[in-house]
Amino acid sequence: MRILLIGYGKMGHTIERLALAKGHEIVGALTVEDADQLATYTADQVDVAIEFTSPVAAVGNILTCFEKKIPVVVGTTGWLEHLSMVEEKCQQLQGTLFYASNFSVGVNLFFHFNEYVAQKMQHYPEYQVQVKEIHHVHKLDQPSGTAISIADGILKHYPQKQGWKNEVSQEQDVLSVVSKREGEVVGTHIVQYTSENDTFELHHIAHSREGFASGALLAAEWLPGRQGIYGMTDLLQL
Ligand SMILES: NC(=O)C1=CN([C@@H]2O[C@H](COP(=O)(O)OP(=O)(O)OC[C@H]3O[C@@H](n4cnc5c(N)ncnc54)[C@H](OP(=O)(O)O)[C@@H]3O)[C@@H](O)[C@H]2O)C=CC1
Ligand SMILES: O=C(O)C1=N[C@H](C(=O)O)C[C@H](O)C1
Fold first, then answer.
1. ipTM confidence
2. Nearest CA to ligand 1 atom 25
3. What parts of the chain have a pLDDT lower than 70?
4. What is the reported pLDDT for 238?
5. Topology annotation, domain 2-103+210-235
6. Which one of 78, 87, 133, 183 is at 20 to 30 Å from 207 when CA atoms are compared?
7. Does 6 sit in the ligand 1 pocket, CB within 6 Å?
8. pLDDT value for 145
9. Which residues form the Dihydrodipicolinate reductase N-terminal domain (predicted)?
């Protein structure tokens, strides 16, 4: 497959290494300096683009891919306030987008178990639920996209919670999502239930970026030929 990497940082480099090992071709790898090159690529040259850039760059890149009819896999987080506009544009331009806040298979299983546990725990108000995430100090967005997905999964099953806040909140109708930035931590997510008597946790620790990269590649191999917006529940058996 001919892959265009939009963003050639930590994730871009990891995806390139895994893609070459699987026999794919990298037709380009764009950074801030050559961002304007994206508009020069056509669907004849690229089977799929993989976008891991920054919260401010992602939406523009997605729209350019729609205009160019290049299917795009997006891992960049921190842009979801624009999702409804992107959905409209996707329909209008007959675009193709695959988005996941986290491409690792383990985290997507975690999302599933998180909802199962929340469904049970909402009946036990003596347990206080909290989401925690720890990432490297270079991360631009807070809370992580994965933590937002986890919080949304809990809120679906907790009618007594009205929303989440990125702080330790004492408000009973608020789900606390707490962020920490530490060294080079790849990505750790915790859902904690605490009562006076005990604590239990769901804990996911990414040991490297390879899990994210291999999931993004799976999505890239699956996406060409499709139209519309997809996510990991379309790809994995959960
Ligand atoms: N969904 C998932 O599974 C995962 C998501 N992420 C998310 O992916 C994003 C990127 O992460 P990461 O690779 O660690 O970040 P890095 O900062 O290491 O890399 C970002 C890259 O994007 C480039 N870039 C920025 N703006 C543009 C633009 N307009 N056009 C082309 N390239 C651009 C940067 O260029 P330059 O080198 O010139 O600065 C850099 O090469 C983040 O939002 C992160 O949260 C990360 C891991 C997993
Ligand atoms: O910025 C990162 O590094 C990561 N970002 C994603 C997120 O915001 O959830 C996924 C992963 O945790 C790594």
1. 0.99
2. 53
3. none
4. 81
5. Rossmann fold (3.40.50)
6. 78
7. yes
8. 98
9. 1-103
Q: Which ligand is nearest to the CA of 74?
A: 1
How far apart CA 130 and CA 221 sit, in angstroms, is 36
Q: Is the CB of 142 under 6 A from ligand 1?
A: no
Among protein residues, the one with the nearest Cα to ligand 2's atom 4 is 187
Q: Whose CA is nearest to atom 23 of ligand 1?
A: 7
* Domain(s) of CATH 3.30.360.10: residues in the chain: 105-205
Domain with CATH 3.40.50.720 in the chain: 2-103+210-235
Tell me if 48 CB under 6 Å of ligand 1: no
**Alpha carbon distance 65, 16 (integer Å):** 19
Q: Please choose, from the candidates 113, 115, 124, 143, the residue with its C-alpha nearest in 3D space to the C-alpha of residue 198.
A: 124
How many other CB atoms are found less than 10 A from the CB of residue 198? 8
- Evaluate whether 46 touches 38 at the Cβ level (below 8 Å): no
Q: Each residue of 28-62: b (16+ CB within 10 Å) or e? A: bbbeeeebeebeebeeeebbbbbbbbbbebbbebb
Complete DSSP assignment for 65-103: HHHHT--EEE---S-GGGHHHHHHHHHHHT-EEEE-S--
pLDDT score, position 167: 98
Neighbours of 96 (CB within 10 A): 23
CA atoms within 13 A on the CB side of 194: 7
Phi-psi region of 56 (alpha: psi -120 to 50; beta: other; left: phi over 0): alpha
Please give the distance, rounded to the nearest whole angstrom, from the Cα atom of residue 89 to the centre of ligand 1: 23
